[in-house]
Design a protein that fits this description.
The complex is a heterodimer. Chain A is mainly alpha-helical. Chain A has one domain: ABC transporter involved in vitamin B12 uptake, BtuC (Orthogonal Bundle). Helix content of chain A is 72%, strand content 3%. Chain A has eleven helices and two strands. In chain A, strands 1-2 form a two-stranded antiparallel ribbon. In chain A, strand 1 and strand 2 form a beta hairpin. In chain A, helix 1 runs parallel beside helix 5, helix 1 runs antiparallel to helix 8 and helix 1 packs antiparallel against helix 10. The longest helix of chain A is centred in the first third of the chain and has 31 residues. Chain A is globular. The termini of chain A are far apart. By secondary structure, chain B is mainly alpha-helical. Chain B has a single domain, classed as ABC transporter involved in vitamin B12 uptake, BtuC (Orthogonal Bundle), CATH 1.10.3470. In chain B, a hairpin with a 2-residue loop joins strand 2 and strand 3. Classes of the chains: A mainly alpha, B mainly alpha. The interface between A and B is large, with 44 and 45 residues.
């Protein structure tokens, strides 16, 4: 019983980080209808950047984190201005292929070239480490911290979209960008903000995930293999959907690795995909996505 | 567009794959050049051509699925893997003849493609593309973890193919085999493209709703596209297994599927000539990068030589695809057409 409970708790805690990664993709998708498949590559890049600043350049960890965030904002602006703005209004296919190629080959390749391809240990940001024990349920302290940070950031972003004027404008643009533009909303600025949020959430998610395991280039594929099922499970347009989807995937993965992996090696890697395919076959728009009605 | 003075007077001549005498002449010269190549070519370029041929076969399959029918698949390398593993398993574990395995590996890839194509019944665009990505991961996982059959992470080694008691082990013989397959597959794809099935595919790609209203059973035709596309992937897998004589899971990663998609984009959507352009373009780029640019840069910056060798082709291939997507979405084939029209109407050329 305790193992089951531990597995569920661990899954929920990991799910928080997946939710944060998925958030960046959802925000960009809601604003500009671009599925940001760069998220895996960006995570690898920012995590390696933090490691490089802290270990190779001997900066204090706090300064390194701040610099990484500044870099995330800069990269977000760069991606939007020079890569995404030229293809505004292109078909979804164009942006889809662009983002996946950028993420899985160009950004990944640049990180390999700059930081070397080998796996590294993340400088410890969150102290103390070790395990926590809550009435028989044990889990790494790091997971709890990550969960709190991830959920905090998630709520912060959600509150930003709900209660500020920019958030209101953003919801406007996601409804219909042409009408928004004719009403005088600066749509390009909104897109830029969406990309910045996308990059920031990738950076934070990457740092948290890098602290949980190691910093390596495999993290990009790993993040994609988790974030995409989370997104499609929850529905591409829904922020709460992304959170709940992340919890489902996290728990399924950790239950799978506790109970199925001893019999079938490595099955938990596959579980998110199988879960996603089954749910998509039953509800093609995901659990909380918008059902698009086709009119003739 | 036809050259000046040439008119289609019969339906057959309108539908013909090669419409003018010049086309036939060019084809003959090209085939003569390619098939006499083993007589004077070096081993290096022979193996380059073999790689190009195998890639053309698999990209022609993807061309039917993505270029014609519009169903984006980023898992095509996995279907290639199914074909390659089928022949590897049947010949090593059960001692089957390699030639008997040819239709079987095609069929295996086709059936696996059908299974993972099933979601296209309800999913479209992003959702379907991500579903094929899931398919790719699931298939690769099966290669890695069913150790008893697939040899796990190490993979399997094959015996060379035999024909009439002789082993086809030299580069030249594999070159001929792959070359013949390319010609056959190109002919088949060209014919599919101009049949009613091909027109249905194009209708589905251009406007699914309009196609449905016109009475095309969409689901059935999408499944056809998946089946045919994966059939050719299986054939390419069979060739792959015999050219490499070794299969392992790392050869069929999602990155390769992405390159196949990139080749279609660079060549130009929906044209067989475009597929040839795209494959040759990226393969030439590969030669330039790995054999000339990377060693040069590695000599110039010796401290990061290792990283340059790993990452340079990733960065440059990716950048080329992205630049094509940004500035020339219709690919090289469209550029060729534009040039042809320009010279055909030479003094009075005009385009908007």
């Amino acid at each position: 019983m305790d193992t089951a409970l531990s597995a569920i708790v661990e899954g929920l805690l990991r799910g928080g980080v997946y939710a944060l990664i998925a958030l960046g993709v959802v925000v960009v998708f809601k604003a500009s209808k671009v599925l940001n498949l760069m998220v895996g590559g960006l995570m690898v890049f920012f995590t390696f950047l933090l490691w490089w600043l802290a270990e190779e350049k001997d900066l204090p960890v706090g300064a390194a984190v701040v610099l990484t965030f500044i870099a995330a904002v800069a990269v977000g602006l760069f991606i939007y201005r020079f890569l995404m703005q030229p293809v505004i209004g292109a078909t979804m296919l164009v942006t889809f292929i662009m983002t996946i190629v950028l993420g899985l080959s160009v950004i990944l390749g640049i990180s390999m070239l700059w930081f070397g391809g080998s796996a590294q240990v993340m400088p410890s940001i969150f102290r103390p480490t070790g395990n926590l024990d809550w009435g028989g349920v044990t889990f790494p302290r790091l997971y709890l911290v990550s969960f709190i940070v991830a959920t905090g950031m998630f709520l912060l972003f959600v509150a930003y979209f709900r209660y500020t004027k920019t958030g209101l404008l953003m919801r406007c643009v996601s409804e219909d960008n042409i009408i928004s533009q004719s009403l005088g909303i600066n749509v390009k600025r909104i897109y830029a903000i969406a990309w910045i949020v996308g990059c920031l959430s990738a950076a934070i998610g990457g740092i948290l995930m890098g602290s949980m395991s190691a910093v390596s280039t495999d993290m990009g594929f790993f993040a994609m293999a988790r974030a995409l099922p989370v997104l499609l499970l929850g529905g591409l347009e829904s922020l709460p959907g992304a959170y709940i989807g992340a919890m489902i995937i996290g728990v399924a993965e950790s239950l799978g690795s506790t109970y199925i992996d001893p019999h079938v090696t490595g099955f938990s890697e596959l579980l998110p995909f199988i879960l996603m395919l089954t749910i998509l076959l039953i509800r093609p728009q995901g659990l909380f996505g918008l059902k698009i009605i086709r009119r003739i | 567009m036809l050259p000046g003075g040439v008119f289609n007077t019969k339906y057959e001549s309108d539908m013909a794959i090669f419409r003018t005498k010049t086309h036939w002449l060019m084809l003959a010269v090209l085939l003569a050049f390619v098939f006499t190549f083993p007589l004077h070519g070096s081993d290096y370029w022979l193996s380059w051509f073999i790689r190009v041929f195998v890639t053309i076969v698999v990209v022609l399959g993807l061309h039917i699925l993505t270029g014609l029918c519009g169903q984006v698949s980023i898992g095509h390398a996995a279907f290639l893997g199914v074909g390659a593993y089928t022949v590897a398993i049947l010949t090593t574990k059960y001692d089957w003849n390699g030639w008997v395995c040819l239709p079987l590996s095609m069929l295996a890839a086709g059936v696996v493609g059908l299974i993972f194509g099933l979601p296209c019944f309800r999913l479209r665009l992003f959702y379907l593309a991500i579903a094929t990505m899931a398919a790719s991961s699931i298939i690769k996982w099966c290669f890695q973890h069913f150790e008893g059959v697939t040899g796990g992470f190490i993979g399997l080694s094959l015996e060379p193919l035999t024909l009439g008691g002789k082993e086809l082990i030299s580069r030249g013989s594999m070159f001929f085999l792959c070359g013949i397959m390319v010609v056959v597959v190109t002919f088949l794809v060209k014919n599919i493209q101009r049949s009613s099935t091909g027109r249905a595919f194009i209708a589905i790609r251009d406007n699914e709703l309009a196609a449905e209203v016109s009475g095309i059973p969409i689901f059935r035709y999408k499944m056809y596209a998946f089946f045919i596309g994966c059939l050719f992937a299986g054939l390419a897998g069979w060739l792959w297994a015999y050219t490499q004589l070794r299969v392992n899971p790392e050869q069929f990663s999602m990155l390769d599927s992405m390159w196949y998609l990139g080749m279609i984009i660079i060549g130009g959507w929906g044209s067989v000539t475009g597929v040839f352009f795209g494959v040759v373009f990226l393969r030439v780029l590969e030669v330039i990068i790995t054999d000339h640019l990377a060693p040069y840069l590695a000599d110039t910056f010796p401290s990061i030589a290792m990283q340059i060798h790993i990452s340079l082709s990733l960065i440059l291939w990716g950048l080329v695809i992205v630049l094509f997507m940004m500035f020339q979405q219709r690919g090289l084939y469209y550029l060729l057409e534009k040039a042809k029209i320009y010279y055909r109407l030479h003094p009075y050329s005009y385009w908007g």
